[in-house]
Amino acid sequence: MGHFLYPAAFGFAAVLPLIVLLYILKMKRKECVVSSTFLWRKSIDDLRVNAPFQKLRKSLLLLLQLLLLILLILGLARPFMKLRGFEGQSLILLLDTSASMQARDVEPSRFEFARAAALTMVDDLSRGDRMMIITFDAKATILCSLTTDKSLLRSTLASVDVKDTRTNLREALVIARSVAQTQENPAIVILSDGAFPDVNEDAGKKGRVHLVSVGERSKNAGITALEARRGLETEEGYQVFARVENFGKEPVEGILEVTLDAKLIDARKVKLAPGEKRSEVFEKGGLVEGTLRAHLDIPDDLAVDNEAWCVLQKDRETRLLAVTEGNYFLEKVLRLDPNVRFDRTSPADFKSMAPEKLRPYDVIVLDGVTVERLGEGNYLCVNCVPPLEGLKAGEKVKFPVIHDWKRTHALTRFVNFSNLEIREATHIEVPKWGEVIVESDQTPVVAAFAKLNQKVLVIPFDLYASDWPLRLSFPLFVSNSVQWLSGRYSQGAGLAVAAGDVLAYTPGRETTEVTITDARGKVVTEKPAENRRILFGGTDRAGIYVVKPNDGEPVRYAVNLLNALESNLAPRDKLTLGDTEVGVSKQAVVSNREIWHWLAMGAFAVLLLEWFVYHRRVWV
Amino acid sequence: MPRIEELLDSDFMKKLEQLSLVSRKIFTGRMKGERRSKKRGFSVEFADYRDYSHGDDLRFIDWNAYGRLDRLFIKLFMEEEDLHVHLLLDTSESMSFGKPSKIEYARKVAAALAYIALSGLDRVGVYGLQADGLLRFPLTRGKKQMWKMFEFILNLPCEGGTALDVACKRFAVQHPGKGVLVVLSDFLDKTGYETALKYFLYEKMDVFVLQILAEEEVNPTFVGDLKLVDVEDADIAEVSITANLIKNYQKNLRAYCSTLKEFCTKHGFNYLFAPTSVPFDQLVLNYLRTAGLFK
What we know:
The structure holds two protein chains of two kinds.
Chain A: E1 3-4, H1 15-24, E2 30-34, H2 38-50, H3 53-76, E3 79-84, E4 90-96, H4 110-123, E5 130-136, E6 140-147, H5 150-159, H6 169-181, E7 186-192, E8 208-213, E9 221-230, E10 238-246, E11 252-260, E12 263-272, E13 277-282, E14 290-297, E15 307-312, E16 318-323, H7 328-334, E17 340-345, H8 347-352, H9 355-358, E18 363-367, E19 378-382, E20 392-398, E21 402-405, E22 424-429, E23 434-440, E24 444-450, E25 455-459, H10 473-486, H11 491-494, E26 496-498, E27 503-505, E28 514-517, E29 523-526, E30 534-536, E31 543-549, E32 555-560, H12 564-567, E33 575-577, E34 580-585, E35 590-594, H13 596-619
Parallel strand pairs in A: 4-5, 4-7, 7-8, 8-34, 16-17, 16-18, 18-19, 19-25, 26-32
Antiparallel strand pairs in A: 1-3, 3-35, 5-6, 9-10, 10-13, 11-12, 11-14, 14-15, 20-22, 21-23, 23-24, 24-25, 27-30, 28-29, 28-31, 31-32, 33-34
Helix pairs in contact in A: 1-3, 3-13, 4-5
Chain B: H1 2-7, H2 10-22, E1 36-51, H3 63-69, E2 73-80, E3 84-90, H4 102-119, E4 123-130, E5 133-140, H5 146-155, H6 164-174, E6 178-185, H7 194-198, E7 204-213, H8 215-218, E8 225-230, E9 236-240, H9 243-266, E10 270-275, H10 280-290
Parallel strand pairs in B: 3-4, 3-6, 6-7, 7-10
Antiparallel strand pairs in B: 1-2, 4-5, 8-9
Helix pairs in contact in B: 2-4, 4-5, 4-10
C-alpha cells in the first residue's frame, strides 16, 4: 500500500469537513404538519429516557458517511499494491532449463532460483488464475497446460531438471503466443538468465511478455570450441583445436588439459584477459583413436562449459569389390581413396562366388554386369540395370540432356552435373521407393535405392559413352557414392553432437537393436527405423554417449555444449522481441495491482450498512 | 356555494334520507320533544285545571269557572316541549388535519345530527368553538332552516388555536337550560379540555363528547427525520421516526383518549371515540344510538 496512481484525488478530502459541517448544522428535516405536537413531544421524551442509542445512531450515521467518503476518495486516488505475481488470468511461464541456468552465481543455482521464483508465482496465483509451464532449452516442452491446480503446478515444477543444452526461446515463445491467442487476459513470463539470441517476432502479438532475469554476474570462462581434424603433417592421427574464452570481467588463469582415454596428452597454462578468446592447437603423436577430453581448470560459476569431449576415430577400411571386365576410369577413381581396400573380379568369377564370400564387402561395383538376382550388400551398378522391384529398363536413348539433379542429396555433394555429355543411356523407369538423383530430358541417369539393409545406386549408361570420367564431378561423385553406399559418410562428422540436438546413427545392415548409454549411464534401447537410421533426441547432458548395435562395435559420440552464448553468463537487462522491448525485472516480479475496486466494494458495503441503520428505525 | 354541494353531495344526501327514515326517533333528552308532554304547562291547547295557588299568573285564571263556582282555577294548557339540540364544533386549525380532515368529518356528523334533529322538530343550534369566542347559528326549528344551517356548518372557518375553555364558557353562560349537547372536537388542546368540559356540568344537559381523530393521528405513517410543525401554534418538534417512537406515540394517544373517557364518565358525559376511519353515517346510526343520543 501507499502507492497511488492519482494522488490528486486526495483533494476531494476537502469534502470531509463539509459533511461534518452539514451534521453540525443539523440535517434538514422534512417539515411535516401535524394537528398537535404535544403527544409527539411526550413520546420523544419518553424514548429519550430509555434510548441513548438515538444520539449514538446519529453519530454512527455520520461516521458511516465519513467512512464512505474516505473509501471513495481512496478509490479515486487509485491505490495499488505491489504484489508479487503477475496481472493476468492466464499466466504462461517459460522456464529456462538451458546450460547457463546451472550457473552458481546465485545460491544455489540460477535454475533453483528460477524454480523458487516460479513456485512463488504459483503461490501468488489468485483464485481462478491459470498457469501453464513451458520449459525451453534446445527445444521447448509443454510440461503443464493451463491449469488452476496449484499442486499440479508445484509438482510439475519440482520435477523439472536443468539441461546442458543451448537455449531456444523462439520455439517456446511461438507455443506461448499461440496459447495466449486463445486466452482472455494472458501474460507471458520468461524466467531466464537471458542467455539466448534475440528473437525476432512480429509485433502486435497478444499477451504481454515479461522477462524475469535470473543471475547476477558473469564470472565464467569456458571451452567454446573443440574440434579434431585430420593432421596435416602426419598420415595418421589428429590435430585437436580448442578455443577457450573468458566471459568474466576479471582476468583468469588456469590450466587447459587434454586427455585421451584418461591419459594426459597435454596441459597448458592459459591466461585470459576479460573477454579474451584463445585458441589452442594440440598436435601430438598418439592422437589417433579414443575419447579426447578437454578440461579447463578455472573455478567459475558455470561448470558445464569447462569440459568438452571429442571422439577420435581411426578410419575404418571400406572393402570394395569391383566386378568389371576392365574399366580404367572407374578403377582409377576407386583406388584413390586410401581407406578403400579394392578387390577386382571378373563377371564370370562373380557369378560363381558364394554369398559368404561377398559378405565382407561393403560395396560391390557392377560395371556392365547383368545379374539375375541381387544378393545382399550395397551395389553400384554402372552401365547395367539390376533386377530391383519396379525398376524397368527400356530402350536406349540418344544424347539425354541433363536438366536437374537433387542438390541436397549426400550423393551430389560438391558435384555439378551440368555440361555432362552422354551419348547413349538405357531408359529406366524408377519406382516410387527409388530416388532419381540426376534427371535428363529422356531418362533418369542416376537413381538411388535404399532399403532397410541394402543400398543400390544405378547409373544406366556406359562411362565410355560419356565425357563424365574426364570431368571433375566424376571422382567426387564416386567418392560420395562409396561413402553413401558404405554408410560411412556421416560418421566422421556425426561423432560430435551439440547437446540437445539429435544424435543420428546409421547401424549396420544386420542390426536389429541398438543400446544407447548416455552421459549419466542411463541405457536406452532403440530399434532402427525403416530408413535404417536411429535418431536419438535424449542428448540433454554433455558427455560421451555410447551407441552399441547388437551386432557390432560400440560407437562413441561426444555431446558438447560448446556454445559461447550459454557460456556468457552476463545477465540480460534488455529483451527485444521484434521491435517491442520487453519489461525485465530482477526479482520475482512485482506487479501493481490496483485495489480501487475493493475500496469501491467497501464503500458499497458501508452504503448498505448506512441504509440499514437509517431504516432500522422503522423496520426493527 | 360550491362547498355546499361538496358537503351535501348526492351520496351524503342519500345517506341523510336513509338516516331520516331510520331515525324517525327523537333525541332522548331529559326532556322529550315534539310530542305532548305529560306535563301540563302553558300553551294554546287546554289540558286541565288546577287550584290556584298563591303566586300563579293571574292571566291563566279561568274567570268563567270562578263566576260559576266561585273558586279560582288555573287553566292548564298542553306544554309544548322543544328539545334543544346544541351542536358544538371545534373549529380550531388542528381540526383541518387529516385526509379526510377532521373538520370535514365533524361537519358531516353535525349536519347529519342537525338533519335528524330538525326532522324531529327539535330546536337545533350550531356553534363553532373558536379560540376567541363562539360562532353561532341560533336555535332553530323546522326543516326549512336546514339549508341555511348546512350552509352555516359548511362555512364555519377552520382556523386559529384551540381554547376550548373560553368558547365553552361563553356557550354555557349564554345557554342555560336543558337540552342535548354534542361536542365535536379532537380535544388535542395543549391547555387541557377539563376546564372547558366542566362548564357543561352546571347545565342540565345531556352531554355527548365526540372525540374525532384523523386516521393519520391514530396510525401515523411518518418515516425518517422530521420536523413536526404544530398546525396551530407552529410549535416544532424534531423527531426521528422509529418503530419504537411510533409505538410510544400510539401508547400515549391511547392513554390520552382513555383519560378523556374517564373524565367524561366521571362527570356523566357520554364519550365516544370517533376516528375518521369510521364512516360518519355508521357513526351516527350505530355508535351514537348505542351511546343513547337518540332512540
